[in-house]
Amino acid sequence: QTASEEKIQHYYDNLWSVGKKFNKKFLDSGFHFGYYEKGVVNYRQALQNMNKYIGNLLDLGNGQPLQILEAGCGIGATSRLLAKQHPECRFTGISLGKEEIEIAKKLQKEEHLTNMRFFTGNYNNTGFENNSFDRVFALESLVYAVNKTDAVREISRVLKPQGKFVIMDGFFLKNPPSNSFLKNAYAILLAKRSIPGIITLKDIQAHLKAASFEQIV
User: Fold this and answer.
1) How do residues 42-85 score in pLDDT, each as one tens digit?
2) Do strands 133-139 and 67-71 pair parallel, antiparallel, or not at all (unpaired)?
3) Helix (H, G, I), strand (E, B), or coil: what is residue 90?
4) Contact 71, 141 (CB under 8 A)
5) Which of 30, 61, 118, 137 could bridge to 104 as Cys pair (CB 3.0-4.6 Å)?
6) Strand partners, 68
7) What is the pTM of this model?
């Protein structure tokens, strides 16, 4: 691992090991920003709505026995929820955080979910065979890729030719802030959350195109 990846691993392992009481409410719905739209009135609903929305974007629900990878799965809350709803599909989660994966495996066992598996690892270099998955999704985790180019290429490699990659994350619409106040605030955000850096929407579209993705929306 790079020094940046070690910082990310430490951040999330510390988050889940030290803040167990705080984190308990996130075990079933995940630790992310959620998705607010009409009718969603609080944070818990937003979390649940995001998980549901990802399922829709992955085109689940048609009965196909799909192989699905969650890149940067955390404690696997979204994958566990979707695995319950779609027992015909098989889910795989990978994350740098050892503590996260231990929690994910424990919850999977408690919930008797046999159509999923979790690994401690790096989605920049998964070790999975070519064309292993029908779908891949990254929920607020691509921002943590130290090398976004490598991450996107690896996802392209493990996806089947007609596969689909769903990204839910934050990107700048233009270059990062240049005035001193915003530049300082941005630096604090990166340091506190152990984020390597946030790229622009134009940049991620270029990375996807370079990795042979088509129909980029």
Assistant:
1) 998 999 899 999 999 999 988 899 999 999 999 999 999 999 99
2) parallel
3) strand
4) yes
5) 118
6) 91, 135
7) 0.92
Residue 90 contacts residue 114 (beta carbons within 8 Å): no
CA 119 vs. chain centroid, Å, equals: 14
Q: Do 110 and 138 contact (CB within 8 A), yes or no? A: no
What crossing angle do the helices spanning 43-57 and 77-85 adopt, rounded to 10°?
60
Do 149 and 210 contact (CB within 8 A), yes or no? yes
Q: At which residue do the structure tokens 């779908």 appear?
A: 135
Side-chain-side CA neighbours of 183 within 13 Å: the count stands at 4
Residue 20 sits at φ, ψ, to 5 deg, of -60, -40
SS3 164: strand
User: Partners of 166 in the beta sheet?
Assistant: 137
Residues 22 and 155: their CA atoms lie apart, in Å, by: 32
Residue 128 gets which letter from DSSP? P
Task: Give the total residue count for the chain.
Answer: 217
In the three-class reduction of DSSP (H, G, I as helix; E, B as strand; rest coil), residue 111 is classed as coil
Nearest Cα to Cα of residue 86 among 115, 51, 107, 119: 115
